[in-house]
Structures are given as structure tokens and as C-alpha cells.
Design a protein that fits this description.
Chitobiase, domain 2, 7-stranded mixed β-sheet, alpha/beta, 26% helix, 311 residues, 2 domains, Arc Repressor Mutant, subunit A, 10 helices
Length: 311
């Protein structure tokens, strides 16, 4: 994945970009008709006939430029559409921006710029604003299981990590699960803690591809993956998941939890240290963002400080 980073006076803008390898491709942007075609396709995917009508040009001229643009990788075939007994090819832009490297030198290494993470964190963070509400379980006994939550400390690490992408913060950034109203649930949510100690987690548990289940056999909670069909029982196991918000289909949820504090801490560490790895999706289905991790105490001080991905 390639990105173009634009520094302005007030902000940093990150765009997806495609690096063009053929210098002849640059002529597509200097040719007046070719560039008009690019701009039309950038607005919405179109077929050559639609473009010819919009630009009031002969269809053959449009086809000529379309073939060149597709050859250079500036546009791509989006879909095929049946129209009055014929099949129309619908084209879309392959990237919102394009780049060209003259030589490989003169680049700058900067670990602080994290375009992959910035892109993946949308819509939770947009235009340097936190566009989500963090939900933690109440520390008092509450809910169906009358259990107090001890996961709140994990929010400190999570907030410090998110802070590097945010320049404007509107307080409060979090609420206890017992404080939420209906409007809160219809936001982008970052939920910390499992269904035993967080009543919102209990509400979404059956929507998770990797979910929590109370086992009467062992009288304890287990974590079950619908993807691998595996059952996880260890206290150090944590899950990180991203799903559509069932309370509002236009919003999303990040869910991080373990069986207890150690598992939840492992999930938050995975999120803050390995978000790029998480964005690759589950090994059993790359299109589903749900991962299982095991917490690791690397320096043997009794505190989980790293994780290994199990799926």
C-alpha cells in the first residue's frame, strides 16, 4: 500500500496513491481529453459510452484514451453491466492520486508517520478528531452477572496511543457502560471488556465473529472463534474485533477484551503495537477483522508487555 503525505500549515493529509512506473503515463495528465476522462471517472465509475455523451465526443476517441489509461494502470475495470443486449465495461479510478519516482534516493524515513494506521482508524479518527466514544465497564458490581470491571486501566494505554493521531479532543472521551443512553450507542464505539463486566459487550456478543460463552462444564467463560472453530480458555487470551455497529449500521465498533484483565490488556497491547498486523484481517478470512492474541511477559516482571497472534 502506497501513500502521498501532504503537509499544510494546519494539518497533515494522507492520500492513497499509485506509483506509476511508465513515464509515458504522465502524458495522460497533459492531454486535455485524457485528463477530462480521468476527472469524469474520478467522480463516479463510468463506461466509455457514458463518458462520450458527457464530454460530447465521438465514442471511438474515448475508447482510444480508455485503452491507454487502463494500460498505464490509471483506471481499472470495475464491473460489467448488461445494456440492451450488449455488455458495457464500467471503469473506475485506480487511485485518487498518482506519483512517479525518478530515482529511488532522497527519501526520508519517519516512523512517526503512520498512513496505514491513519487510514484504518477511519471513521473512529477523522481529520485529526476523535470520532468515537470509549466504553468501559463500571468498577461497581452491575449487570446480569453483578460483576465489577477492572479493565478501565487499559484505557490509559489506549488513549495515549490514539492521542498521536488526534489534535482536537472533546471531553468526555469515555463513559461507563452504566452511563450510556440510546444516542451514545449510535456512535462509533470502542468497547473495552467482555460481557461479564460490560453490559454493552453483552449486547453485541452474538454479533462478534469471535465471541464469549459461559461454559457450565468448567464453570468459566471461554472464547469461541466461528472462523477457526477453536475454543480458548487461558486467562492471557485476548480478542480484537471490528464490526458494524448493530445499533446504527452507518457506524462501527472496535471491541477489545479478554477473559479478565490480563487478556484485555493483551488485546489493547495488540491494538496499540500491532494495528497494522490487525488490519490484515483474520488468517482464516482476510475480510473479517477479528484476531486472537496471547499476552506475553517478555521481561519476566509479571506484567504482560507483548503479544503473539494465534489467529
Amino acid at each position: 500500500m502506497q501513500f502521498l503525505i501532504e503537509e499544510t500549515k494546519d494539518e497533515q493529509r494522507v492520500y492513497d496513491t499509485k506509483i506509476l512506473s511508465n513515464p509515458k503515463a504522465l502524458s495522460s495528465f497533459s492531454n486535455e481529453l485524457s485528463f477530462k476522462i480521468i476527472k469524469e471517472i474520478a467522480k463516479t465509475p463510468l463506461c466509455p459510452m457514458d463518458i462520450a455523451r458527457k464530454l460530447k465526443q465521438h465514442e471511438q476517441k474515448i475508447y482510444y484514451h480508455i485503452r491507454k489509461l487502463e494500460k498505464f494502470g490509471i483506471i481499472k475495470l470495475e464491473s460489467l453491466e448488461n445494456r440492451i443486449g450488449a455488455t458495457a465495461k464500467i471503469y473506475s479510478l485506480s487511485s485518487p492520486t498518482f506519483s512517479f519516482k525518478v530515482i529511488e534516493d532522497y527519501y526520508t524515513k519517519n516512523s512517526k508517520i503512520k498512513p496505514t494506521e491513519i487510514k484504518f482508524l477511519k471513521p473512529f479518527i477523522e481529520n485529526s478528531n476523535l470520532n468515537a466514544l470509549i466504553i468501559v465497564g463500571s468498577p461497581d458490581p452491575h449487570g446480569k452477572y453483578k460483576a465489577p470491571a477492572s479493565d478501565g486501566y487499559c484505557v490509559i494505554n489506549l488513549s495515549a496511543y490514539l492521542g498521536q493521531f488526534v489534535s482536537n479532543v472533546k471531553l468526555p472521551i469515555y463513559k461507563l457502560d452504566t452511563q450510556l443512553n440510546e444516542n451514545d450507542l449510535k456512535k462509533n464505539l470502542i468497547i473495552i471488556g467482555g460481557p461479564k463486566t460490560n453490559i454493552i459487550s453483552e449486547k453485541i456478543n452474538n454479533k462478534l465473529p469471535i465471541y464469549f460463552n459461559y461454559s457450565e462444564e468448567i464453570l468459566d467463560w471461554t472464547i469461541i472463534s466461528t472462523l477457526s472453530k477453536k475454543i480458548y480458555k487461558e486467562k492471557e487470551i485476548g480478542v480484537i474485533e471490528r464490526i458494524v455497529n448493530p445499533f446504527d449500521q452507518t457506524k462501527e465498533i472496535f471491541f477489545m477484551s479478554g477473559k479478565g484483565f490480563r487478556g484485555t490488556l493483551a488485546a489493547v497491547i495488540a491494538f496499540t503495537k500491532y494495528l497494522k498486523e490487525f488490519s490484515n484481517g483474520n488468517i482464516y478470512d482476510k475480510n473479517i477483522f477479528a484476531r486472537v492474541v496471547r499476552g506475553v511477559d517478555e521481561d519476566s516482571d509479571g506484567i504482560i508487555d507483548d503479544v503473539e497472534f494465534l489467529e
